[in-house]
Prior knowledge:
Blueprint: E1 2-3, E2 24-27, H1 38-53, E3 58-60, H2 68-77, E4 82-86, H3 91-100, E5 105-109, E6 113-114, E7 120-121, E8 126-131, H4 133-147, E9 152-157, H5 162-182, E10 187-189, E11 191-192, E12 197-198, H6 208-219, E13 224-228, H7 232-243, E14 248-253, H8 256-259, E15 267-273, H9 275-287, E16 296-298, E17 305-307, H10 319-334
Parallel strand pairs: 2-3, 2-4, 4-5, 5-8, 8-16, 9-10, 9-13, 13-14, 14-15
Antiparallel strand pairs: 1-3, 6-7, 11-12, 15-17
Helix pairs in contact: 1-9, 2-3, 4-5, 4-10, 6-7
Amino acid sequence: MLSGCAAAPDEDADSGDQALDFVPCIVSDFGGFDDQSFNQSSYEGITAAADELGVEFNEAESQSEDQYEGNVTGMVDQGCDFIVTVGFALANATRDAAQANEDVNFALIDSALSNDDFSPLELDNVKPVLYDTAQAAFLAGYLAAGSSESGVVGTFGGQPFPSVTIFMDGFVDGVAYYNDQKGTDVTVLGWDKEAQDGLFTGGFEANQTAKTMAEGLLDQGADVLLPVGGPIFISAGEAIRDRGDSAALIGVDSDLFLTAPDFSDLYLTSILKQMTDAIQEITVSAGNGEFDATPYVGTLENGGTDIAPLHDFESKVDPALLAEVNEIRDLIISGELVVESPSSP
């Protein structure tokens, strides 16, 4: 499960300068580096950083949850100076490795650290990389409610991690805000924010479970679906295709219109986490000896999160609705409209 790249050369052949003595590394969760989602975006970030620094990086792609600890430890054993661990599920493996190896720095995607009793923990060698995606999901929920013809939209997740439910919270609140502003009654299926309870496939694979869950929402009249959990959107897209429905998809993490074009005609928008740029910047800083454990929190204000362009769907959406979404973005950035989730960083 561990694959290492060759060591960087000792000297630059052209300049004769000593090459940077820095080995960055990355460990995926079991979605894998080609998940067209946050693993892939993080991988692209460390790739860009390694190119910028002129070094090579090591990687470990997890195939199952029971490999997280071994893969993180394996990266330490391979001499990594800085390790990106991707996903909430790797939080404990990251914590334990960081405590045992204080000379190695880590960036943990989508989670802060906690002790075994769930009390908060901060370590000088771990930088949490977090995203307040409830803000962008609020915009997507408002857009979905205004675009729905059936008056029913739906969402479901992979597993009930905070990095998943935060999308669902913002989405529900965006729909509720639309109803409040317009006097409508658009219904959200699949997530009860107050109870923090909803539909989950139990994993992050594109499989029959995810497809069946999407079909169930379509059966209940949903014409906009928000699948939250890496590749499970593929199963939702297949469900829409197979039934010949006119339902739309909302992606998460990456702009799926660009990263997963097979369903390009289905995407209303995507809720973005600008992970590639953040990971590149954090990795380059670490390589230059400027690692900082202060958490990074992506927001609408700093551009760390947003919704993607509507691409082919823009012609199908009322320009007035888009103008309202842009106004709401400004209200959130100014603090006049506060979006809250129990999972917000």
